[in-house]
């Protein structure tokens, strides 16, 4: 069934909000043949992920998705069959009124942030009665069978495994970013928020006997990195060496290229929600820099995911991983935790692939949304 979907998104967390909704919109069109209109209040964020996007256009089409700037002063439009407010953004009141008046009823979904907390499964799919007789349903992405699943395109894992098995393809891709990896060099990607723990971690990596290449896309962590390197500035293409550690700054790349960067690396440090999930699909050990919240709520989310993720790991490996994530999130010294993790590397690498395969065996989020609409009808 071909339906008309519209997705509303206010960009709060840098590129994560735009990244998730852009992936969802593209997948609805490409894999399910749906018509999609994406409302964004910050087209500049989208343009970093999709360079073809015109930041000045009020309305445009990219890869079959209609993209509209969410105006400050709302102009009435006909509501879609399915209206998604992403991450609890507030729909224009006039649009909600139009949804009430529409002859064909509208499915209203609140697509929530990704979380592994226990309460998520109990709230997924619950309705909330709204004025005018509308019902809004809460749709929770998640890692368990009682949630809506995870964003994953068709054939993603197979493409990733084929790429990782092809040394020539990996080298060609890295060269396209200006990167020439040396034989035997461990590759680590770093995309994170500012973090006081960075210097202690990099000191530990630089003092190891194993040569490491740290690939750092443009982002908020660059100032911390510059201070540790004691250089006046860092720009795309710049490279520095400290001990066994070689550092190179990369351009901010589109989503598809970022996936391949993660696939190239042995260890990925990621942030937010979108890159966090893409690192899991890479099937490699990772470190998550969860978005810090003033009330400390991020710590509960971190612990909930860790509890789920380490299931099946031997105690030593589970403990090493948990400790590294906790000290990184707390911004405290990383050296001992990094050394402990290194001792568990083979087990953690095998576990990352097992985790990926287990999550990929479940229906993906976009398919679950389409099925939810069909069942609702």
Task: Report on the architecture of this protein.
Belongs to the glycosyltransferase 104 family. The chain folds into two domains: 4-148; 156-360, Rossmann fold (3-Layer(aba) Sandwich), CATH 3.40.50. The model has no long low-confidence stretch (mean pLDDT 95). It has helices at residues 16-32, 43-49, 93-101, 119-123, 156-164, 167-176, 198-206, 222-229, 255-264, 274-281, 297-309, 315-330, 335-342, 345-360, 365-376; strands spanning 4-9, 35-40, 59-62, 65-69, 82-86, 107-111, 127-129, 135-139, 186-190, 212-217, 239-242, 245-250, 267-271, 286-289. α1 (16-32) packs across α15, α11 (297-309) packs antiparallel against α12 (315-330) and α12 packs antiparallel against α13. It has 15 helices and 14 strands.
The structure class reads alpha/beta
Radius of gyration: 21 Å
- Characterize the main sheet: 8 strands, mixed
Which of globular, elongated, flat, extended, rod-shaped describes the shape? globular
Describe the strand arrangement of the main beta sheet, using strand numbers: 3-4-2-1-5-6-8-7
The pLDDT mean sits at 95
Keywords: Elongation factor, Glycosyltransferase, Protein biosynthesis, Transferase
Catalytic activity: dTDP-beta-L-rhamnose + L-arginyl-[protein] = N(omega)-(alpha-L-rhamnosyl)-L-arginyl-[protein] + dTDP + H(+)
Family: Belongs to the glycosyltransferase 104 family.
Function: Protein-arginine rhamnosyltransferase that catalyzes the transfer of a single rhamnose to elongation factor P (EF-P) on 'Lys-32', a modification required for EF-P-dependent rescue of polyproline stalled ribosomes.
């Amino acid at each position: 069934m071909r339906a008309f979907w519209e997705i509303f998104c206010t960009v709060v967390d840098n590129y994560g909000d735009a990244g998730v909704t852009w992936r969802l919109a593209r997948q609805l069109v490409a894999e399910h043949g749906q018509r999609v209109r994406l409302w964004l209040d910050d087209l500049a964020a989208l343009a970093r992920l999709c360079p073809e996007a015109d930041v000045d256009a009020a309305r445009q089409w990219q890869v079959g998705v209609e993209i509209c700037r969410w105006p400050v002063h709302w102009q009435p439009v006909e509501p879609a069959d399915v209206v998604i407010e992403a991450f609890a953004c507030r729909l224009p009141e006039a649009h909600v009124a139009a949804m009430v008046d529409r002859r064909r009823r509208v499915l209203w979904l609140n697509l929530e942030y990704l979380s592994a907390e226990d309460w998520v499964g109990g709230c997924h799919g619950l309705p909330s009665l709204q004025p005018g007789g509308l019902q809004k349903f809460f749709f929770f992405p998640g890692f368990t069978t009682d949630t809506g699943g995870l964003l994953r395109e068709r054939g993603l894992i197979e493409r990733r495994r084929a790429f990782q098995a092809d040394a020539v393809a990996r080298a060609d891709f890295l060269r396209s970013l200006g990167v020439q990896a040396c034989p035997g060099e461990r590759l680590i990607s770093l995309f994170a928020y500012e973090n006081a723990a960075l210097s202690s971690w990099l000191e530990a990596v630089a003092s190891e006997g194993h040569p490491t290449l740290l690939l750092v896309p443009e982002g908020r962590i660059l100032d911390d990195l510059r201070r540790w390197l004691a250089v006046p500035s860092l720009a795309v293409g710049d490279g520095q060496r400290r001990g066994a550690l070689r550092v190179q700054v990369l351009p901010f790349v589109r989503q598809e290229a970022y996936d391949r960067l993660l696939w190239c690396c042995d260890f990925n440090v990621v942030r937010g929600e979108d890159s966090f999930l893409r690192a899991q699909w890479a099937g490699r050990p990772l470190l998550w820099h969860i978005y810090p919240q003033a009330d400390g709520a991020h710590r509960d989310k971190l612990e909930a995911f860790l509890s789920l993720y380490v299931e099946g790991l031997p105690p030593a490996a589970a403990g090493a991983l948990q400790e590294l994530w906790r000290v990184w999130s707390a911004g405290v010294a990383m050296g001992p935790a990094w050394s402990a993790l290194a001792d568990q590397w083979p087990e953690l690498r095998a576990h990352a692939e097992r985790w990926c395969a287990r999550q990929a065996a479940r229906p993906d989020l976009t398919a679950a949304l389409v099925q939810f609409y069909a069942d609702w009808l």
